[in-house]
Design a protein that fits this description.
Chain lengths: 254, 203
């Protein structure tokens, strides 16, 4: 071990965060190198000196009572705005749900109309499924129309793989890291809801997409309904698919 | 450090109350940290007016994000708040015209942490100014890690998260900063010694 590496490891050594290999190598080096040994023993005092100089240089600074009151007022006001906007989404959630596409797809042996792909696709979001249904603030700034849910293939067959592609059109005030969406299926075999999430960075403006396949639905199907996706989607008939978007990282209003 | 534990438990409780919408708790939490945040912003920006603006910005951002803050063991509210403060300052400083002002000369004569370190109460003004000037001479990247480590008391990992850099880079910057500070302070000492010798020699 050379002196430069030894000096870099001293912090972790003092904080007892080194693994035993590095610790042994460092101790062997310290035993044979006076300069590094002095560095080790002088480090805490040196750091205290720097720390005290910085602390002492600003210790006299205090926010005035006016400034303090202003900060409290504005922080509370900003929180009110957040709460208000969350409350507003309770109504908006219904609208979002209605706007969020009602797609009728026809099960086994019947044909589903193919929908056109939106232009300017920005982001393909990886799929996750760790959500609680209805959790989070409704993402009303992300629009979705009937044309934005796309099911492939056109002809569904029992046990045949299919892909549901959802396109999100963002018009967000700030980027969103995860988009949660509840997929509601209503069909001859019953009503099923899957709380899903897609991780990625939704752009402030642009189009993102997520793809859901029976394989991805297998675990939630089993967990929630103790059924395989083919049991749910293998019954002939007309299926209605709705989705509602959420920001699962935000808390809904009371 | 039983006292620290007590403070930490109270902070957690305050944070929980704020998350439930308790306005008194919001005021209490701000008052508890406002001066720490203000001073940290001042160290980064070196202007009281800007530091006050950034302290306000920090709390506005913090309370917007507070519902997402998880109160749990190992999650430090202070580190989270300082991260927001430093990032608010850095956003402001990215404006091309922003320049960090030099330290007022001499820096205010203040006793350093009288309660915490009764053994060495006062750092001599001269020495303190040398240290502050040496920190300023490090350049922005190294100056920030020194402030976050030695003023805010963040760990290498917390600094890495705050600055969005790998923790290895933090270690490397701290190492470089320490070497440069030692060199700068050694040069100053040498200058002072030479000055003292020349005064003795002079008739």
């Amino acid at each position: 071990m050379n002196c430069e590496l030894a000096c870099r490891l001293i912090d972790e050594y003092l904080e007892d965060k080194l693994n035993w290999v590095d610790r042994s190598r460092l101790e062997a080096h310290l035993a044979s190198c006076q300069a590094c040994s002095e560095e080790l023993h002088g480090r805490p005092a040196f750091e205290r000196t720097i720390s005290r100089a910085l602390t002492a240089s600003v210790q006299h600074l205090k926010l005035s009572a006016d400034a303090s009151a202003r900060i409290v007022r504005r922080a509370q006001a900003s929180r009110h705005r957040v709460v208000w906007s969350n409350r507003a989404t309770l109504g908006a959630r219904v609208l979002a749900s209605a706007a969020a596409a009602v797609l009728v797809f026809i099960g086994v042996l019947l044909v589903l109309g193919r929908l056109s792909l939106p232009a300017g696709l920005a982001e393909h979001l990886p799929f996750l499924q760790d959500r609680t249904a209805g959790q989070g603030e409704a993402l009303t700034a992300v629009s979705l129309s009937a044309n934005d849910i796309y099911v492939e293939p056109l002809h569904l067959q029992p046990s045949q793989p299919f892909t549901i592609t959802i396109y999100f059109h963002s018009n967000l005030p700030e980027p969103v890291d995860t988009v949660g969406f509840d997929l509601d299926f209503e069909g001859p075999s019953g009503h099923y809801t899957f709380a899903l999430a897609a991780k990625g960075s939704l752009p402030i403006e642009g189009v993102s997409m997520v793809q859901v396949t029976p394989e991805l639905l297998a675990a939630p199907c089993e967990r929630q309904y103790q059924m395989a996706p083919t049991d749910i989607f293998g019954v002939p008939g007309v299926y209605t698919l709705r989705t509602t978007l959420f920001n699962p990282l935000s808390t809904p209003g009371q | 450090m039983a006292n620290q534990d007590k403070v930490s438990i109270e902070t957690e409780e305050l944070v929980r109350r704020c998350q439930r919408g308790d306005e008194l708790a919001i005021g209490a939490l701000i008052r508890r940290y406002q001066n720490y945040v203000f001073r940290l912003c001042f160290l980064v920006m070196r202007s009281e007016q800007d530091a006050e603006d950034m302290a306000q910005e920090t709390f506005i951002r913090a309370f917007r994000a507070l519902p997402r803050f998880e109160v749990r063991e190992g999650a430090s509210f202070e580190a989270w708040l300082y991260r927001i403060a430093v990032n608010a300052c850095r956003s402001r400083m990215r404006r091309k015209w922003y320049q960090v002002l030099p330290w007022p000369s001499p820096a205010p004569d203040v006793v350093a942490e009288p309660e915490a370190q009764p053994d060495r109460l006062v750092i001599k003004d001269e020495r303190r100014n040398e240290i502050l000037e040496a920190i300023d001479s490090l350049g922005e990247k190294h100056r920030l890690v020194v402030i976050l480590r030695y003023y805010a008391g963040l760990s290498n990992e917390e600094i890495a998260q705050t600055l969005s850099i790998p923790s290895g880079t933090v270690r490397s910057r701290l190492h470089t900063a320490r070497q440069r500070l030692k060199a700068a302070l050694a040069d100053k000492e040498e200058e002072m010694e030479q000055l003292a010798v020349s005064k003795k020699v002079a008739p």
